[in-house]
Structures
1.
Amino acid sequence: MVTLTINGKTVTAPEGSTILQAANASGIAIPYLCYLKDVNEIGACRVCVVEIEGVDRLAAACNTPAENGMVVHTNSPRARKARRTNVQLMLSQHDCNCPTCARNGNCSLQSLAMELNVLDVPFKNNIPENRWDNTAPLIRSESKCIKCMRCIQICDKIQSLNIWDVSGTGSRASVNVSRNRAIREADCSYCGQCITHCPVGALQARNDIGKVFDALDDPDIITVVQVAPAVRTAWAESFGISREAATPKRMAAALRRIGFNYVFDTNFSADLTIMEEGSEFVERFTHREDYSWPMYTSCCPGWVRFLKSQYPELTDNLSTAKSPQQMFGAVTKSYFAEKLGVDPHKIFCVSVMPCTAKKSECEIPTMNDACGDPDVDVVITTREFGRMLRVLNIIPQLLPEEDFDSPLGSGTGAAVIFGATGGVMDAALRSAYYLVTGTNPDPDAFYKVRGMDGWKEAEFEVPGAGTVRVAVASGLGNARRLIEAVKRGEAQYDFVEIMACPGGCAGGGGQPIVDGAELADVRGNVLWRLDSESAVRYSHENTDVQTLYKEYLGAPLGEKSHHLLHTDHHGWQMPNK
Amino acid sequence: MSRLEIMTRGKSQQVMEELYNDFGRRLVASPPGICPVDMALSFITLCHSQSCGKCVPCRVGLGTLKDLLESVLDGRATLATIDLIRSTAVAIADSADCAIGYDAARMIVSCVDGFRDDFEEHIEKGLCLGTCELPVPCVFQCPAHVDIPGYIALVKEGRCADAVRLIRKDNPFPVTCGYICEHPCEMHCRRQMIDDAINIRGLKRYAVDNAGVVPVPQNAEPTGKRIAILGGGPCGLSAAYYLALMGHDVTVYERRKKLGGMLRYGIPSYRFPREMLDRDIDAILSTGVKVQYETDIGTDIKLEEIIAGYDSVFISIGAHIDVKANLPGEDLNGVISAVELLRNIGDGAEYDLTGKTVAVIGGGNVAMDVCRTSMRLGAKKVYCVYRRRRVDMTALPIEIEGAVAEGVELITLKAPSRIEGDAEGNACRLWMKPQLPGALDDAGRPRPVNANMPEESIDADLVIMAVGQKIESTIYENAGIPTNRGAIVAMNSGQIFKNDKIFAGGDCATGPATVIRAIAVGKVAAANIDEYLGYHHVIDVDVEIPNARISILSPRGRVNTVDREAGERKGDFECVECGMTTEGATLESSRCLRCDHYGFGVFRGGRIDKW
């Protein structure tokens, strides 16, 4: 332990702590902007500067180790002036047209300027121009970037994709796609982790709200909305309503108020995914020699993009099952259109996703199996969903609880956990066990795949089939480590679930942003709670899914399923491949 | 009223001159990787403010160049702008009245010609090719990329053995480099922005002097792969060391009685005591590297036999043949090459030059080595004869100073023309033609030209030629290995042919260069040989680097090492330089700005943990 004095208070902190950590632990706040715990501790913004007695310059609290006997003043006149000047300097190069920014009201620079009482900027504005392909799912605004470098670090250290890099030097130093590529040329997974860790509005998912309103406003179009499991954990976060009150049924009411003709649930197609993917796993497992191992899940489009760009040789290891989002679209524009007796081309299929990569997934040219149109027309993020509610003055607190529509609005406990790391594996094992043995396992039998570890392993005995070795990873850096271990022969698995975002979709790149907080865990726990409270906890027991097979699809892996619910991952290319 | 006045410097002039000084040091310490177009803009801005404003090309033209460069950087330019910049700069260079204008414009022409691709990237993509991949200046400058801030921090804490272990991650010759590295690391040291470069080599020497015997790391599992290293100099032994650590079975073929190459057979022991060299060599051999001493490739064993018998071969034979100056009289008795003299001394030969007058021809480090060696062998008088000026000598200034202090007479701007012999055929007199400095050559040194003055001569019983070394590559050439003017041609990876087992590097591929460059090449070769053999062994070290702490930032003096008193040291072969004291080393190490932590280094590239 080290003992130091901060603002006259004696503070002890573990050896190796920074001044910032020591201060925070003792209830002394030091403002900062670029700092991101364990990921970006580079002292770039110089907002956290503090004065240390006996040291002739100010020191960045975020990366200066606390030392015994240090006497630190976080609010000395020098520190305050320098901090304020640095914020003013950043503002002079920041597009401060806040009312038109998606992060208005949720921007660390904005709130910092407010906290520091910065009411004027004595410097000339010099706002750089935006040069970006605004059709990409990921939008970067140079005019808002404060060069905190968090995006670079998240992508390097957590996602291991190195999509971002510092570009240029001197006054023109900025952030851009690495190796001077355009975003569409890069092997970006579109996971969106850079967006959710951007302290300002420099990184955004493409705003697709307009397309949704256009469809809603067109009387000739039938709008169908699906909402992903993880959205229900976070959809009302920015409205100040508790997680307990922000129920899935209240969310269904909100979607109905927006004006969608049919309010459905991706949980339905998550159960359907389990039927297909679980059956596929059983098929592969019982014909081991016909396949390469392990089998990887395919429901996360960020992960699929990662695998196809980083390990294209493993493409055949991906389950051929489409993601729940795409299965939903395919079923909507075939089965459901038939049921309604309408032309599927008149259906506009909207997804609300915790994800930015889903925007790219629905644009994959081969995802048009139902009627030739894209199976899913537009994807909005949880954040865009929240913005639509504000546009329409829909206040979640005031909404009643309402059911989803039928038949694509039902889901089991096994479906809802798709939004948390380990959930797909857990759900798949529940049904695979049933498929092999004819009896249900304890729904909590596979609890070892749950939890926030970035890389989890477990083995389960399935009577009649043997030992199934499974692994679950979330975060693409962990995915890379796992794959490398498999390649080196240090790990052997039969079935592996991978989610691009740490903690799974609950921590997805399309989820609401709370700077400095990692919420995947608490949000994921909402899903595990919903599962435990569900009357039905096995995908194969979803009666609407059973009806779908009976009336339309036949059996899992059958002819029709193959056409609608599976995909050829070789059917499209990553850039420069 | 006075007719004339003595000029005094005003306060502002005084301050400006200090700032010019500061700025000069700042320029020297420019970080690697910055945008050259941006720098060109800054240069021209500075040059423009130096203009008196009398003449059009300078007053207006430099400002125009500034605008044009700005348009390139702002992405407002087209490719035609590049040509406009160049043609405008040429016109200014041709027509400005004084150097303020024409030399500024010349710099811009150099910029356009030197990095046109950077201009193009800015124009076409609005992006820059500049990157700060290796942002720590000392680490960037060190060919072997040794973790310099790391070991300085360890020295500061008195952890000398850990410093040696850390250095060995990238350089298995810490002792050697502590004594005689040319320390390119100090060249762009950021501390120069404040006062002066850190004495990096001095701190390394302190570390090795105080580390005791530091064991080498454990070798990786044996791979069963056999590698032959031809030549046991710093390059070959560096490769041998890392390859052995990687678990390969390494045999070094050494022509001489002992290992070390030019470290033993080129560098006199007063600069680098032999027992210190043996420390590095002993450590390297402790990894299990095998040595075939006194084995000459081509005579004792056929090259083809080695190539056939090993999984990979690394040629690092150095450059050990002397270059002839082709002077009349060069074949007289009493004319000897520096290479031969130093080599014989390295093998223990004893010379007595008592009463002799020695003329050493050359201006490099080897010339200084033989001058100072001759003094120590008892010579009555030692001349160092050089055809250019003292500032043009390639020897390190400290070596020249050392030689002068020991009584060596420098005779500069005199080109040796012939050696006169006596009746017995012994050299007795050296004739020289006076020279004047002429136009600059490609390296920026003025070429000497004959002055219109008569020949001069000095007494010389012994003439030592120190005008360069060549590579003995004939047998390699005969075996089909490509050479260029005697140097073996290898790729940057060290490999000679694509996907082939033969690698080469060091002086035999580059011509005579520095020891740290040879070490770096050995390291690169080891990595690529390992890769060629199908492995990806990682070299790292488990030394924890002390956290950066706020350094002393106010300007202060650099702690230099001192030499033994000249009159005393010139009589023996004991080490000339005295190492730093603990007090001095602590003070000097606390000057380090820790660029691995402060600045860009904390974000990216500040530390390379492994390779």
Note: Chain A has 18 helices and 17 strands.
2.
Amino acid sequence: MKRAKLVALNSVIVVLFLSVLAGCSGNKSNEGQSSSAPSSSSSSSASASATTDENPFTEHMDISVSWWGIGVGFEPHDEVLQKIEKDFNVTLKPVDIGWDNYKEKSQVWAAAGQLPDIITHSITSDTPAIYNEWVDQQLIHALPDDLSAYPNLKTALSIDGIDGIKRDGKLYAIPRGTFPVEQVTSVWAVDGAVFVRKDWMEKLGIKDPQNFDEFKAMLKAFVEQDPDGNNKDDTTGIVMNTFGYFKNVFTPTFPEFGNKGWLKEDGKWIPFYASSKMDEVLRQVRSLYTEKALDPDFAVAKAGEANQKFYQNKAGAFSFTTTSIYGANGIKAEWEKNNPDLNFFDHVKILHPWADANGIKYSNVNTPWWSESMINAEADDRKLDRILRIYDWLLSPAGKELFDYGIEGKDYTKAADGKITITRPKDGEQFIDLKKGYPSMDIISQLAAWRNAATIEDNEANRAAFGDQSVQFVQDELNWTKENTKPIPTAFEIFTMSTPAKDKLSAITYDDDFTRVILSKEDPVKMWQSVLEGYKSKGLQEAIDEVTAEMAKFNK
Amino acid sequence: MNKIANKPLAKELYKSRYLYILLLPTVLFYVLFQYFPMYGILLAFKEYHIREGILGSPWNGWHNFEELVKQHDFWRAFRNTLIISVGRIVLEFPAAILLALLINEVAKQKLKRFYQTVYTFPHFISWVIVSGIMFNFLSSEGILNQMISFLGYDKQTFLTDPGLFRPIIFLSNIWKEVGWSAIIYLAAIAGINPELYEAARVDGANRYQQLKAITWPSIRGTAAILLILAVGNSMNGGFEQVFNLYNPGVYNTGDIIDTYVYRSAFKDGTSFGVSTAIGLFKAVLNFALLYAANFMVKRLGEEGLV
């Protein structure tokens, strides 16, 4: 009896052990197979897709796609998502990434061989070194040379600067365009905005600041003079959605600081942080911080966390983007939620930039794209084709119609002459926000291109979605910047330029260092000098030389 | 001793077979999840290529270590790790013993259990949550600052002050873990023969004398073992805690090796090789410290681990 028990127990343990081992080795062999899959299957499937042209969507496919917050957006599996999945005969598997950790997550997935089919990342914009590495190590799929099957995508991929991210003549990423090229200045011009409580300014008798000192004085007054009149020391000066938006405040001091650009100084092209003009910016930001005009928690708050302070009347100014007034979670809606019965536009306005020493007012301008989609190298050619077809549709007029008006027959009707009548329900005066009914819309509509340009258009769809007052507000801002400002002088070609030493600059922790210097009590300019010394050991000087040499080729 | 050693191994194994079977799952666990992944250490001497895997990547000798010692930030992290670890051993380690002794002195059983539960509970809250709670306490609009400004003083920036980061780390970890760490001492105390206390009382010893002469000597062995383990763990400064609480403003005093490795591997750069080199460096140091602590404890007359 005892013996039988023992034998049984032993055999159970042995089986368990073997199954665990088998599990490990099983994975291994799978990995080996799948990593070699693209090369072996590519030739056969390429010919297959070329010959069977009739219906490219007969085979059902699972396609995994990563996006910031996609889990929440895809969870209700709404009709927009269903439509895409049905039309293209796919199941889209959401793979969530967050704004605070997407870079780390993608690196971990890359190392573990677990990248999704459609990879959302920002390496062509932020860290060309990692892009190069991913291309070299064949983690991502090259796009076909002949894109004639995807006409909309082909147009989108002809944007300025695209050659900068080609490797050996091949493109490995679909840049997420920020706007159609002809609208370069207008869209970016309203990207960075400082919202300010005009009721507080009136109460304290403050006029629009005309220089930095007046700006600082205004923020200090918000902190010290109890603008909300509750007899409590509970207001701060300026808060920010992310630090990126706050940079715009300093364009009159140092224009290139506003878009982290490169500039020519003493005959050499240098990154903005190496410029002597940084000194004044550092002094200004430090003084805002020590004099408490800047949110004391700016360094510890996560992205978007500080917005609440503005909504809840705890901050007088707020760095974000003009179009953020739109939508159910926009500034206007959130502010009015916290201030029932008050109209946002009666209490808040945008503070325009003041002129620099030469009398020029600068507006923001940036790269033609930020972030990109990449396709996992393990996707075979049929999957690649399917993904590209989806992207082509997303960029098509039919796609735009869906994103602007919703689902035909349900949200709008279209007459024979093309005239569109919106039929979706209203919430008070305004049609309800499409994204409220279709949470996946926000993601799907921006997969192939940011729709920044779409939201600043003055058209029926926007007026229906956001209300006349909001659309007019944005139009007024657009016109003001068009008439009064110049875009920041920008060497666009350097953003996507890749040279050995410049690529290594991605290891520089500029944001962290800047924050550290601002929070410290030591002299900021001296501290920055030592930070730059550290950067030199990481190859800053070599990068400057290489970029200067490259730019000389363009006679710049 | 000799007799056993001379017996054939197979026979000895068979004799204690049930014990070995009981041991097997644990051994398996360690082999699979601790020893097997160790081949990753190879990365410290390789230039890692994601597609080629750990074994396929080319060797590059000591290059990763040479890169490492050139990095200024690494030495800062190294220094911080040492300081924080020493602080943990000096401040956090005795706190649990103290709490166990104090709880033991509570006369009423029910009250004793109540305190023990209250002190143990925070252990089950993750650092992500704790950091959120602390932010609510310590931010510029946090409760503490509201009290300070109510009393008419200037608000303080607790979370970004490099001088305050380490005290905050120690205090919050004591708050969170002290009850949990005290359990093992309480168990040791529960195992003390009550007759010893009775005899002491008959001899006229007061409670402090009982504590000094009976309770403390009885748990000293446990404390010694735990101290060795703590020292052996000292190059791990507590990644979860630091990662959730730090920010660029306190890197100078708060960035530890683990957080530095995390940032350099996943956020800033692309070198897994250098990060692994740091990990290996850390492990070797931990091993040396463990041995040193064990040696010290034995010299002081307690039983060590090995």
Note: The two ends of chain B are 18 Å apart (CA to CA).
3.
Amino acid sequence: MNQLSTSQRVFRGVLLGLVILFFMFPIFWIFLMSFQTNEQILRIPPSIFFEPTLINYQALITGRLETQAGNLDIAFMENLWNSVFLSSSAVLLSLVLGVPAAYAFARYRFRLGEDIAFTILSFRFAPPLLVLLPLTLYFEDIGLSNTYTGLIWVYQLISLPLILWIVRGYFEDISPDIESAYRLAGHSWLQTFLKISIPLARPGIAAAGLLSFIFAWNNFVFALVLASADKQPVTVGALAFVTASGIQYGQIAAGIVLSVTPTLLLALYAQRYLVEGLSLGAVKG
Amino acid sequence: MSEVQLSLNSVDKTYYGKKIEAAVRAVKNLSLQISKGEIVALLGSSGCGKTSTLRMIAGFEGVTGGTIQLSNHEIQQLPPAKRNVAMAFEGYSLYPPLTVRDNIAFALKAERVSRSESDAKVMEMAKFLEIEEILERYPSSISAGQQQRASLARALVRKADLYLLDEPMGQLEPQLRSVLRVRLKQYLQEHQMTTVLVTHDQTEANALADRIAVMEDGELQQFETPTQLKHRPANIYVGTFIGEPPMNTFAAEVKPVGKGFQFQLEETGELLDYQKVDFQQPLRAQLIQHKRIVLGLRPHAVKLGKGALQAQVISNQWLGDQSHIAAEFANRIIVAVSHQREEFQLDENVPFHLEAEDLHFFDAENGNAIAHGLEM
């Protein structure tokens, strides 16, 4: 690294500060909001000094929301659980399907191979609404609407392409001869795949899994249309705070803080994998 | 000759691209019989099909046609794991998460060799290839040459019916290479290990192999001992491919004169005069029958200093133990090698002659050898 002069260092500090302020302010503000009552939030002018209250978190965790207009049951904790369940299952299924597929695309040239891979990627280009309308109708017919199975299936549109393409690049980076050497030593194709290919591609698989988990978690529109209250994830569940008697900003903020926390922790924990996994070519034999 | 260990019978390999026109026939009707304990080198320029052949024997590529027999069993349909073949890869292909020691012991573990026996074998191999000090290191932290030796050790430590070595010494330093060549050859012979090695380096092929299969464009050109390849090349390709610097070639017309012949070079009409040489039958009859031939002359056989022919010097290089002289003769460049330091100046006209017994005669139509001067 070059030695920076004092003025350069100050300049850099100011710039970094600005960037951090810009990106972190909304999160910081929501964090503050989650400890305030609706009256405190809506006062003019807003202030960052207030008497913190845990009432929002209480309401979310107990599931009872008390407003002037009356009491309301909210399913936030169920929603949170739904989010965890839906996202993890979707990613798990995508890994089971996507990793072997990625391997096939990386190692073998077969008829229409590139076309299939591209079609799967193109799911990411299309706006979700494009598939939602026909899917709603079909899901009604075959009884998949408002089921976990149906949602996890639709979530594949989010997680599968991501996993397939990131992991494919990873497999392509592994020299096929490493696998060949293992196979010559008396191991079957499957053993080689499980013992050599997957461990070597692990950083890529972890990164792809993590990324698609975050995308699945943040998804809103699929669940909004295809699931009702008891199957909804937090992203949709937060809508419940828009009540007849007003918008419950405090609870929304607390809900956001609670729902962001798992992905944030996960991302922080796996930061190393993410960077390593997304900058291809990290495995060198 | 002892029993045949590996036999390729009319093996064909075609790679099909997206379109039928894009198909590439990488190996054409290749037949080879390799005896037990024999060391064979597949030699050729890149893209000649030698690596494809190796990969078909190992089982990583299917054959398009023909059969492969190892120890009297047809193996072309078996998966690699069932062929009992050991291979050292050009790209080393060590498992990154394992130490060098574990890499070498890997296949032994799969064969359920006992721990103590495996340790002893790994140690023996490591000593043999001079990698004892790096046994506990990981592949990413050792040099290319060390990786190559580790990969070689991993192949040789196994007990297999056949050993395949793909460019086994390409990354080694020259000194180590010549030491290891001798040692490797001894080791392979002592243990009666049937070996097929792929290389583009003639020196390596000559030093290691009992017989060399020269391949070009997917076809086997000649399968012979190193000496035979040099003295009796089967065609112009082998003649010019084997030997450094390459063989000089001249198209010529055959003119019988008395007991001997004159060869008139086609481009410029120079006469190479051998009318006093006694060309005996059947060579005599063959030459008369062919009329047009290609003459091959090894650079070592071009005798500079006296003679009826003259060439104009283009370059004269002393390599420390021999002079390489390039000169213009009959509108072409002729290369000569002399074992003493020659003092010819640029553009100097130098007389030279060629002994009849050093000439190689090739058919001008198909390039096949008609005869070699030695046979007279």
Note: The longest strand of chain B covers residues 302-318.
4.
Amino acid sequence: MAKLQGMAKRDARSTAIAATIFLFPAVALLIVYMVYPIIDTFLISRLKWNGFYTAEKINVGWDNWKTLIQDELFWNSFLHNVILMVCSILIQIPLGMALATFLDASGRKSNIFKILWFLPYLMSSVAVGFLFYYLLATNGGLISGIATLVNGKRTMVDLLGKNPHALYAVIGVVAWQYTPFYMVYFIAGYSNIDTSLYEAAVIDGANRRQYIFKVAIPLLGPIFKTACTMSLIGSLKYFDLIWNMTQGGPNHGTELMATYMYKTSFQKFNMGYGSAIAGGMFILITVIALLFQKVFVVKEDY
Amino acid sequence: MNKIINPQREKTKSRIAWTVAITLAVIWVVVTVGPFIFMVVNSFRDKKMMGRQGVLHFPDPWYFQNYPDVISNGFFGYFFRSLFIVSISLILMLIISSFAAYPLARMKFKLRGFLYAGIVAMMSVPMHVTLIPVYQMTNQMGLINNLFSLLGPYVAFALPMSVFILTGFMMTIPSEMEEAARIDGCNKYNMFFRIILPLSKAGLSTLAIYNAVGMWNEFAFANTFLNDIRVKTLPLALGAFKGEHSQDTPLILTVLTLSALPTVVMFIIFQDKLVKGMMAGAVKG
């Protein structure tokens, strides 16, 4: 008996050692590149510092945070993030769903649609940003070109140059890039539905349309929640595309929290305040994501 | 009273519905493919012709010089640097994440729940929150303008989701396999290399695709750490070319076409496998 206990103890010990060895590299990297930097961001946010490590670091206490709370530019950027978030959820998810529904209803013969519709997602955000920068340009852009053709005289459509439509142009471009993602996501959702449900619906006299609207779409509920969560977090930390397309301009009209943070830190070299923006961004994203989860979880309980 | 269904009317109704659906489908094809056509067609245009002919006119004559121009301006340098750093980061990331997933999925120890929850929570950390401290670290290590500065961030930021997915994957491996191996005298370390790792191949390949695409396209870290044109990666090539030739739209569109090419070729070859891999990020965050 004692011997057995001793063996169990030794086994637990050897398990602990093995677990430590296997987990060490990952945990170490995550501490160095994630946990420590997050803490450090909040520490730097209490400094006035241009980021050069030979330069003087002045402790300014909560000054940066006080400025941040009153910074209209920051809250405007946050508002743009929220608009982007709401529009993304309202455009990309229903559109992706509609495309997936079409593909599911029409079967294999519509495969060519699936391939062509997926193409935008193959491009990187940076590339999409550049492509649409030139595509929407007043001079030599596609939209201006079409407008010229329709109007019969030289017409310039300046979508990115003026507010507020610059933001909506950007939102359109984001939708162009990400709709395929949700499309494929919902295709997977449809194909996970048991075929016996379709057969049962058909036996009960339902046609294809009734099956889709009364059986399949309600079954996709949980998938909707995940899609919304992904879209939400993605929209709040959005950066690459905007940075390469508008740099947050014109006149901060497409400024997001991330672009504002990047500009402040790496163009104006105000690392202390940049860290405060990053910290504020982190807090806002965490709070919104948790709230969203909570609201949805409550709904599921009923 | 039941409504009497008129089969003829139902048929017309369904035909109308399909006509509308297909029309909308074709419109969406125009929207998705239009920008690609704009990109490719205009890359074959002489920049002097751009203003004169307008973008809707086919290039006349077709101009092929943009491609050799872009290539002779170091395009393949960007390409191979990206290939190099992505390959190393990816291999390292797959090794480290499968190491971490093994004890989380198959062993019972004290901190298991805490570590797993902690790693999963890091999936949605925005990189901007870590950017300034990581930049400072990179600077202190003397790695600014060094390709290897990207190694740590690339591996670390890919880890949480990879560990999450691999842990889930390894949990589905039946425990009978392990029991049998243990009876044959296999210890925990050999178990990983002989049993668990080979059985996780499918999960690893999906993760490899997902993270390869992510790292290949990564912009913010690269843009912050690499200022010297001689060390820049492919996503920075566009900015570098634009900086030098901002008025030369056809040339930039050529760079765009060339840099989109690798993923498109992969898509044509692997199609469903690539799509599945790119969708690996669709997990509950």
Note: Chain A is about 75% helix and 0% strand.
